[in-house]
Amino acid sequence: MVIKGTSCAGAARLAVHLSRTDTNERAEVRELRGVAAENLRGALLEMEAVASGSRATKPFYHASINTPANERLTDEQRAHAIDTLEARLGLTGQPRVVVVHEKEGREHCHIVWSRIQLESMRTISDSHNYRKHEEVARSLEREFGHERVQGAHVEREGRPRPERTPSHAEMLQAERTGLSPQQVKAQVTELWRSTENGKDFFVALWNAGYVLARGDRRDFVIIDQRGGTHSLARRIEGATAKDVRARMADLDIGRLPSIADAKRVQVARQERDAMPSMEPQRQSEPQPVPAARRADEDDEKRKARPDIADGLHWTHKGGMVAQQRSANNWLEEARKHREGRREQTARKQETSGAEETRMRKRQELLREFGREPDDDRSNEPDVGRGRSR
User: Fold this and answer.
1) pLDDT higher than 50, residue 309
2) Does the structure show a pLDDT above 80 at 276?
3) For residues 99 and 26, what is the distance between their CA atoms, to the nearest angstrom?
4) Intervals of CATH 3.30.930.30 along the chain
5) In sequence order, what are the beta bridge partners of 106?
6) Global pTM?
7) CA-CA distance, 95 to 46, in Å (whole number)?
8) Most confidently modeled of 66-80, 227-241, 300-314?
C-alpha cells in the first residue's frame, strides 16, 4: 500500500482533477462530509470560502491511498483506512470529500480534507506527514494481510533507502508536458556523466533542449522543452545536492536566468521551431568542404569562443559554438523583453500624467475667466456658443 499526500490550494483545480474521466476509467464521489453542498465542486468551493476567513494559504490536505490491482480494498476496508489516516494526521472530524478512481483495472481513492478549525479559524499542522503516511500504510498492510511496501522513513530494518517516487505535482506536470520524470532523469544523468564541469554541463543541457536556471527555493533547476520545472539534483541519478554544488562551482549562479526568464526562452524556442523556413530549398547537393578549409574554420570558431549569460566562457567541443551563440542570443532577447516591458509601462505612466496635467490646467483657466467647469461636458467641444457671444 502506498499513501501520498500534501497540503494544497485551489478548489476549482482540485475539482477538475478529481472529476477527470479522460485519464481514469471511472471517477466516483463516495462521500461529502461536513459541507452543505451536494456536489464535489460545490463542496470544495465551500471549504475554500470558509478558509478565506483565516490566514491559510493552503487550506486543503489532499491524500491518496493506492493498492495493487490484486489487493483491491472493500468498502469497509477503504472507510477504515481513511479514518485511520485521518486520525494520524490530526484531521478527525474535519470536512472532507472522498473520490474513488479506477485506472487500468487498479482502484485508488482520493481524500481532500479542510485544514481549517472552525472554532479557532486556525490551520491544522501538516508536519512530518510523510512519516505518518508510512506508519499508517505499514499498519494497514499487516491488518489487511497485504504485501509490504518498503518505505523511506519507518521500518527500514537496515535496508537501503528506496528510490524516490514522483510527487503528485510532478505527475500532473508530466501529464501536461508529456515528459515523465524518468525520461528527463535518464537524459540529464547521461549529460551529467559526459561532462566534467558546470560550464560544459550548461552547454550540454542547452544543446539537448533544456535551460539551466536559478531556483526560487533550490540552487539550480532546469526547464524542459515544454516549460516544465525540474530540480536539478533530483534529475541526476546518484548525485546529491552537495555533489551538484561542487560540480557547478565554476558557474556564477547570479548570472543564470530566473525560472520565469528561462520559461520565456523555451516559449521563444517553440515559436521559432514552429515557424516555416523562409530559405529556398537547394536543388543540388552541397559540395563537400575541403579538410584544410574545415580546419581553418574550426580554428576561427575556437578563437571566437562566444560567451553565455554575460561573459561566461565555454569550452569548444565538437561544434557547440553555434549552439552557444544561440543560447546567448535567447538570453539576451529575454533581457531585452523585460526592459521593453518596463519602458512601455513608464511611457504609459508619463502619458497618463501629462493628460491629467492638461485637464487640470484647463479647469484652472475656466475658473479664471469666470466659468465653472462642467464635469459632464468638460471634454466636449463648445459648439454654437461663439455666435451668440
Assistant:
1) no
2) no
3) 10
4) 2-144
5) 103
6) 0.56
7) 10
8) 66-80
What tens digit of pLDDT does each residue of 112-146 get?
999 999 999 999 999 999 899 999 999 999 999 98
Q: How many CA atoms lie within 13 A of 295 on its CB side?
A: 3
Please, which residues have CB within 8 angstroms of residue 108's CB and are 6 or more apart in sequence? 64, 65, 66, 67, 100, 101
Give the mean model confidence (pLDDT) for residues 323-339: 63
Closest by Cα among 181, 249, 252 to 214? 252
E strand or H helix that includes residue 329: helix 321-368
- Given a contact cutoff of 8 angstroms between Cβ atoms, the answer to whether 89 and 61 are in contact is yes
C-alpha cell at 38: 451536494
Q: In what order do the strands lie in the sheet with 229-231?
A: 211-214, 220-223, 229-231
List pLDDT tens digits, range 198-245. 888 998 998 888 999 888 777 888 888 888 888 888 888 888 888 888
Q: How many of the other CB atoms lie within 10 Å of CB of 132?
A: 19
Q: Are 88 and 136 in contact (CB under 8 A)?
A: yes
Q: Which CATH number fits domain 2-144: 3.30.930.30, 3.40.50.11540, 2.60.120.560, 2.60.210.10?
A: 3.30.930.30
Quick one: residue 231, left, alpha or beta (phi over 0 = left, psi -120 to 50 = alpha)?
Answer: beta
Asked if the model's pLDDT at residue 37 lies above 90, the reply is yes
Reference 171, options 30, 27, 1, 4; nearest CA is 4
What is the C-alpha separation between 375 and 380, in angstroms, rounded? 10
Mode of pairing for the β-strands spanning 220-223 and 211-214 = antiparallel
Q: Which long-range contacts (CB under 8 A, 24 or more apart) does 75-82 make?
A: 77/144, 78/109, 80/140, 81/1, 81/136, 81/140, 82/109, 82/111
- pLDDT for residue 303 is more than 70: no
What DSSP string runs through 102-119?
A: EETTEEEEEEEEE-B-TT
Extract the C-alpha cell encoding 70. 490484486
Provide the CA 126 distance to its chain's centre, in angstroms: 22
238: left (phi over 0), alpha (psi -120 to 50) or beta: left
CA distances to 9, 18, 172, 180 from 13, rounded to whole Å, are: 8, 9, 11, 21
State residue 56 phi and psi, 5-degree precision: -70, 135
